[in-house]
Amino acid sequence: MTQKEKEQEQPEQESVLDEASDENPEICLASDDVNQLMSVLEEKSRLIDEMNDRYKRLQADFDNFRRRTRQEKEELSTVVAEQIVCELLPVVDNFERATASKATDLDTLATGVQMIFKQLHNALSQMGVESVNAVGTIFDPSQHEAVMRVEDDTQPDGMVVEELQKGYKVKGRLIRPSMVKVVGN
After folding, report:
1. Segment Disordered: which positions (predicted)?
2. Cβ neighbours of 121 (radius 10 Å)
3. What's the rounded Cα separation, in Å, for the pair 130 and 168?
4. Does this model's pTM top 0.85?
5. In angstroms, what CA-CA distances link 47 with 33, 38, 50, 86, 185?
6. Between 31-100 and 106-126, two packed helices, what is the crossing angle to 10 degrees?
7. Phi, psi at 49, each rounded to 5°
8. Rounded to an integer, what is the distance from CA 172 to the centroid of its chain?
9. Please, which residues bridge with residue 24 across strands?
10. N or C: at which end does the chain have fewer Cβ atoms within 10 angstroms?
11. Cα separation, 171 vs 155, whole angstroms
């Protein structure tokens, strides 16, 4: 090729490059750069696949944990219910004996019922059940439920004067508030 031909070809190439950059921008990279970018892209794709797999395994583990926890909770509830029933069965047995007996003496029957009540109270105490103190204390909305108000000039406002239904706690946690009459002058 002559110098003149080379000079004519060069402006043509420049004009093609100018047209490519103006109308259709293209990036020209060396094959080594393309290979490097492809390897980086493949590595990123592999990392994404790995993270997706890890996420799916963690999700499955969490679902299994949730299912196991629910099953353990149900089993624990069953065990606790069985323990409570076992504590109360002797009381039920004594009530059955009392109702089956042909006691003609009311005092004997009353004594038997009191003994059974004491046995029930002891069984509940062993399970951590305690009654809420109400009469003679100042009304506490976290432990008492006021259902009536009475006027009494001898008592201060807010004093509980009568308990209509006992309240109970289990191991310090209120399970039923006391229904009470409260002084309101």
Report:
1. 1-29
2. 13
3. 6
4. no
5. 21, 14, 5, 58, 76
6. 160
7. -60, -40
8. 20
9. none
10. N
11. 32
Q: In the chain, how many H helices and how many E strands?
A: 3, 6
pLDDT in tens, 120-157: 999 999 888 999 989 999 999 999 999 999 998 888 88
Measured CA to CA in angstroms, residue 28 lies from 19, 22, 34, 39, 61 at distances of: 14, 15, 10, 18, 48
* DSSP single-letter state for residue 182: E
Between residues 95 and 101, the one the model is more confident about: 95
Alpha-carbon span 57 to 7, nearest angstrom: 65
Rg for the chain (alpha carbons), in Å?
43
Q: What distance in Å separates the CA atoms of residue 33 and residue 76, rounded to the nearest whole number? A: 64
Tokens of 21: 């950059």
CATH class of domain segment(s) 128-185:
mainly beta
Structure tokens at 178: 């006391």
CA gap 110, 115 in Å, rounded: 9
- In the sheet with 168-170, reading across from the earlier edge strand, the strands are 129-131, 168-170, 173-176
Q: What is the pLDDT of residue 9?
A: 55
